[in-house]
Amino acid sequence: MPRFSIIVPSHGVSGRLSQALDSVLQQSFGDLELIPVCDSPDAPAAAVAAAYAERDRRVLPVNSPPSAGLGGARNAGLRAARGGYVLFLDGDDLLLPGALDALDQRLTETAGVDVLQAEYERVPWWEGEPANPAKPLLAKAPGGAFAPGAAPWLTGVQLPAWSAAYRRAFLTEHELTFPEGHFTDLGWGGLVAVAATRIAVLRRAVVRHRARRQGSRLNAPGPHQRELLDQVDRVLRRAAECALPVERARALFGQLFTQVLKTASRPERLTEGHRAFFRRAGRLYRRHRPAGHRPPGGSLGVQHRLLAAGAYTPFRALRGINRVAAGALGRLPRPRMLRTRLRYARALRRPLDPHLAVYCAYWGRGYACNPAAIHAKARELAPRIRSVFLVEADQAHTVPEGVEHAVIGSRRYWEVLARAKYLVNNANFAEGVVKRPGSVHVQTQHGTPLKKMGVDQSTYPVVAARSGSFTKLLGRVDRWDYNLSSNRHSTQMWERAFPGSYEQLEYGYPRNDVYCTATAADVARVRRELGVPEGATAVLYAPTHRDHASGFEPGLDLAEFCAAAGDDVVVLLRAHYFYDQGTARGSDRIIDVTAHRSAEDVCLAADALITDYSSIMFDYANLDRPIVVYADDWEVYRETRGVYFDLMAEPPGPVARTPEELARVFREGEYRGEASAARRAAFRERFCEFDDGRAAERVVRRVLLGEPPEALPPVVPLAERVPAPAAASLVRS
What is the DSSP string of 554-581? Predict the structure, then answer.
C-alpha cells in the first residue's frame, strides 16, 4: 500500500496538467500513486495522462464524465485510491518541492491523525507575489495531534480540499465523499470537520495554487449560486445528527454563514431570485442557529441580524451598492490623438455592421498568413460579407488587386474597427480597440508553439523584459471569442499561455490549406518566380528570432554549406519577419526570400527545410518533405526562451549541431533516408493533426455563416491526404 494517493482532476485544465503531474512525480518522496481523473478516454487530458502512465507505473488514470463535476471526479479518484493517506491537487496547481517529505514526516510525528491541515501558496498565473491564506488560521493550533475541540475555528470550511492530507481508512469508515453540485469544497470540508476526532497541522506550504485569471467559477453569476445553501444545509444537518459540541457548532455555523452573506451581499452573482435566496438563507439561519450563538460585531453583525429576521429590504439598503457610470471617453482605452479619439467614440455609438469583417496580419505587415487565407475563402463562401484588410502605410502596395484595405491609424481604420462585427487577426489589435457587445473576435495565431508564449514567458527574464505588461496582454486576450489551433499540442499550450474564456477551434491553420491543394504546376510557377534554377535542390533555411541577440545573424555560413553539401544545392534564405528590411542578402546559390510576402509559397518551392527552432517546421511538415534541425545553440535557446517540449528528443528529422554535421547530412543523403522519414512521420502524426486543406472553409462556415460544428467538413485523416508534390524526386515517408 503506497503512503499517499494523489488525486488530480483535469477537466478544463489539460494545458497545465503535465506541470501538475510533473510536480508530483519529481518529489523526492516516491512512495505514492498518482491518479489523474480525465473526462473520457478520448479527452485531451487523457492522452497526457496515458503518456505518463506508460512511463511511470505509479500513474493510474481513471475517468469521470464532465457532468459529474469536480466532486464526481474526486470521488472517482477516491474509489481507485489504495494509499494510506489521500491528497487532492487541482490539475492546474503544483505540489511544491519537498511537500511529500514534509507531510510524511509530520504524519509520522502525529501518528494516526484523521486529517493533517497544511498551508498553501496562492499566486496569480503570470505575475505577483505569493500569499499564504492559511498561515494565520493554522498559527494558533496546538503543536501536536489534538482533538478538534482544542481549536474549534479549524472547521475545514475555510480551507480548500487540497490543503490537507486525509487518512483513507477514516474516509472509508465515515463514508465521506464529495457532495454533488457546486461549492463541493465547502460541503466536503464541513463534513470532514464534523467527523474528525484527531487532527494536526503542518506549518509549511505544500501546494502552489495558481488562481485562474478569470477568477473562481464559484464567484461567477448564475443559478449555481443557490447550491451554496444546499451545501450549508447538508453540513449543518450532519452536525446536528452527530451532536457536535456547542463551541464547534458555533464556529462551524459562523463560518458557513459568512460564506452565505458574501453571496447575499453581491447581487451580481445572483442573476435572478436574489430575494428568494435571502429568504431561504434566513430560514436555514433560524433552523440551524446553535444555542448561545452571538452575531459578530460591526456591519457583519448587522447583516446576521437582518438575515435572521428575514428583513430583505433593509439588508438590500445596507449593501449600499452605488455604481457610478464613467463618461464615454473615460471608459474607453483611447487612441492617442484627441480628434481621432472623438471620431472613434462617435463611431462606437453607431450600430455594428453585421456584414463587415476586418482582417489584420503581423501588426499590419501585409496581406498574409491565416487572416489572408480566411479572407480569400470568405470572398468565395460569404460574398455578402464586406472585408477590409488593415495594413501599415508602407505596406499598402503589397495588398492584392481587388482587396479592400485601410491604412492603420487612419480615420477609416478607426471607423471600420468600430463598426465591424467580425475582427480577425493573427496577433492582437491595438490597445485602443474596444470589444463591442455582439462583435466576434477571431485569434488565428501564426504558428505552433515550441517556444514559451504569453504568460508562460514571465519566468524568462530576457523575454519578459521585452514582452511589456502581461496584464495588458491578458486584457487583449479577453477580447477573443475564438482561438484557432492546428493540433492538440497547440490547444493545450494556448490554454496555458493565454488564459481566457474564448472557444478553441481545432480546425487547422487556413494558411496551410495550400499544402494540400497546390499542384505540380503551382510548385513550378513559384520556383520560377523565386529564381530557383532548373534541376536544383532548393533548401529553405529559416532560422528563428533570438531574444538574447540584438540583430539577425544567419548562424551558418551559407556559402560554405552550399559548397560542402553538393553542386546542385541552392539555399532559400528566409530570416524571421522581425528582420524583413526589404533588402536582399543573396548570391548565385543563395536566394534571399525574406521579403517574399508568402511563406507558404516559399515552402512549396523548397525540396527540404533547415531550421533551428522556428515554428515553420510544423507548417512545412504538412508537405511531408525532409526537415533537418540545425541546433548549434539549443541549450542557450532553451534556457533563455523556454520551450514546451524537447525538440532534440522528438525532432522531425536529423539533428546537426555543427556546420560540418549539417553538410554531411545533405552530402550523404541522410536528410532523405528512412530514419529521417520515420522521425518525420511521428512528427506529422502529432503536429499536422487538423491541417487537411479545409481549415479556412471550416472557419468561414462556423464564424461568418454561423453553421453548427456538426455541419462542418470533418478533418481528413492524415493517411488520406495528398500533399503538394515536391519538384525534386525525394523519398517520402
Answer: -SS-HHHHHHHH-TTEEEEE---GGG--
Name the strand (E) or helix (H) holding 327: none
SS3 call for 275: helix
Per-residue exposure over 565-591, b if at least 16 CB sit within 10 Å of its own CB, e if not: bbeebbbbbbbebeebeeeeebeebbb
Q: What is the pLDDT of residue 470?
A: 77
> pTM to 2 decimals?
0.73
Q: 587 falls in which pLDDT band (50, 70, 90)? A: low
Q: What is the pLDDT of residue 264?
A: 87
Instruction: Identify which of 265, 310, 275, 262 has the alpha carbon closest to the alpha carbon of residue 157.
Output: 262
In the 8-state DSSP scheme, what is residue 493?
A: H
Q: What percent of the chain has pLDDT over 90?
A: 68
Pairing of strands 4-9, 32-38: parallel
Look at residue 511 in the predicted model and tell me its pLDDT. Answer: 97
Distant-in-sequence, close-in-space partners of 581: CB < 8 Å, separation ≥ 6: 595
Q: How far apart are CA 228 and CA 261, in angstroms?
A: 11
Single out the residue of 461, 451, 365 nearest to residue 407, CA to CA: 365
User: Per the structure block, which three cell numbers stand in for 673?
Assistant: 533516408
- What Å distances lie between residue 668 and 178, 561, 608, 654, 664, CA to CA? 63, 13, 14, 12, 6
Q: Where are the alpha helices (DSSP H) in 349-397?
A: 369-381
pLDDT band at 125 (very low <50, low <70, confident <90, very high): low
Give the angle subtended at the CA of 582 by the CAs of 576 and 587, to the nearest 5°: 85
Distance CA 95, CA 131 (A): 16
Closest-CA residue to 235 (of 277, 163, 284, 165): 284
CB 482 within 8 A of CB 441: yes
